[in-house]
Write a structure and sequence with these properties.
Layout: H1 3-15, E1 19-22, H2 29-33, H3 35-51, E2 56-60, E3 64-65, E4 67-70, E5 73-76, H4 78-88, E6 108-109, H5 110-122, E7 129-132, H6 133-139
Parallel strand pairs: 1-2, 2-7, 3-6
Antiparallel strand pairs: 4-5
Length: 145
Amino acid sequence: MTDGCQSQKLNCFMCVKRFVYISAADFGVINYLLQGYYEGKRAAETELLTKFPHGGIILRPGFIYGTRSVGSAKIPLGVIGSPLEMVLQHAKPLSQIPLVGPLLTPPVNVTAVAKVAVRAATDPVFPPGVVDVYGIQRYSHPKSK
């Protein structure tokens, strides 16, 4: 990069007040199987929190469900995701069990993730830092803190 580009890049970072990054929940053993994916996510998180220490928000959802379009077909992932979310959102203590606990992270609806991302980006009192799936569920409701 030329000095001009570096200067523009620095100015760009200085202009950004808040930043939201949608990362991924920790799934224990799965992290090892998809090591490059998780290493990339965590490296991006580290860089963003370094550049935006007072306005960087990292969302870490697990399985995100909604209706997926594949060509002209619609796949309703909510048929699986919604019931799992209802059951697993109450199983938070089980997520602490070594090895299998992270696999019990509840899925979250794509609309909930979108609502929290927009709120985090636009609400100046939304706290910076990492928001796990339980925080995403909590913040997705209108008057939650």
